[in-house]
Amino acid sequence: MLDDSTTAAVLAALAVAAFTCALFGAGARALRQPPVIGQILAGIALGPSLLGRLPGDPTARLFPAHVLPYLGMLGQVAVTVFMFSVGHELTAHRRQAAGRTVAAVSVGALVVPMGLGAALAVLGRASLGAAGEPGAGSGTFVLFIAVAVSITALPVLAAIVRDRELDGTRTGTVALAASGLMDAVAWLTLAAITLGARTTGGRRDGIQQVGLHLLLLLALAVALLGVVRPLLRRWMRNPGTAPYQLPVAFALAAGSAAATTALGLHAVFGGLLAGAAMPHLRERPDPSADPKSDPRSDRTPVPFLTASIHAVETLLLPLFFVTTGLALDVGSLRLGDYVLLVVVCAVACAGKLGGGYLGARLGGLPRQPSATVAVLLNTRGLTELIALNLGLASGIIHERLFTVLVLMAVITTLITSPLLSVLGHRAKPRREPGSHPVEPAAASTSAR
């Protein structure tokens, strides 16, 4: 049972994390960057990289060791809910995922960066070993690096697509659909990698364990998508169920997360599957609204369930950013680590930009739309951080490389907005006070 002092320390840490992330997120938005960039930097600033270097170690005072397990648990709950929304958004674009263009972009923007990432892990074994990776060159390590440089943050991409007024265009649709397909493959691969990293026994026993757990994971996915999803769709069509949809969604995410944890996987995989199993029931636009007086009247409103899920994320996710920031120390990096950072950024950008552009051109898109799709697919954010935390928790990577890869995620996302501006896609002008506000779910999704 928590005593009063521990409860007070946890609540104080939550207050500091929420305020700092909100402040940094607002600063990032003012600079036309995704708020998630500011929130990641807030977590880094509150950790040993900045605040912990001040006299008296304020980091240790704000986040004492005895409260970190509670903060970590709350952060994992937030991440599980976030992955629920990622899974929910992945299925939203499944109808657009058919077609030669989306298939070509998906293959190009996934296979090329994964190939380059694998080559980096194999050819750069000595440099990675010097960065504190004794397992550099192993199959598990190579696959993880390949996935780490090839992930696209779908929620961040969706927010940028809206901000640059690309929603509804062929370019935006292709980017979103391709990102959904690539993320599904990347997370499935990551599930196999983390299972392999956690198995015990000889090689043959390890392969058997991974195979068994993947079969059980497949059975869970079939049950959620083939049985639970149709039942939920029928139930949610009743208007009287609206007040109960959020508790049911949370129970589904928690139950699925518990199941994947029991299988030896992280809870985030359960959240992702639960989100994919949750049906999409859109509200109809108000036919009485005047599109001239209300520019949002021709849009489909975001359902209450989606807005509520994003509200829960916004409340608790700062704790995940803080626990991530506490796990890395930029000041501990050496000169060779910064050289490695430049190489990793170059590989990540070359893979996504080159593979995405090539796939789009082979899929029939003209040059400029192809370049736009490639730039959009180079975005990384919270999704990348979750994958990196999985690698760190599984022992696949260690602190210094973890820090390098987090900085890579920040840098590659930072350059997205300037590159889109160069391509002629200007951000929407900010609304003046008193104008129509942004929809709640859209606003909170843009923070990811």
Q: Percent helix among the residues?
A: over 70%
Q: Can you write the helix and strand succession as a string?
A: HHHHHHHHHHHHHHHHHHH
**Tally of alpha and pi helices:** 19
> How large, in whole angstroms, is the Cα Rg?
22 Å
- Per DSSP E runs of 2 or more residues, the count of β-strands stands at 0
Mean pLDDT: 84
Shape: globular
Largest sheet: none
- For the termini, the CA-CA separation is 34 Å
User: Approximately what portion of the residues adopt beta-strand conformation?
Assistant: under 5%
Helix/strand class: mainly alpha
Unreliable parts: 283-302, 432-447
Produce the secondary structure layout.
Blueprint: H1 4-30, H2 35-46, H3 58-62, H4 68-92, H5 100-123, H6 125-130, H7 139-148, H8 154-163, H9 170-198, H10 203-236, H11 245-262, H12 267-277, H13 304-326, H14 335-362, H15 367-377, H16 382-393, H17 399-414, H18 416-422, H19 440-445
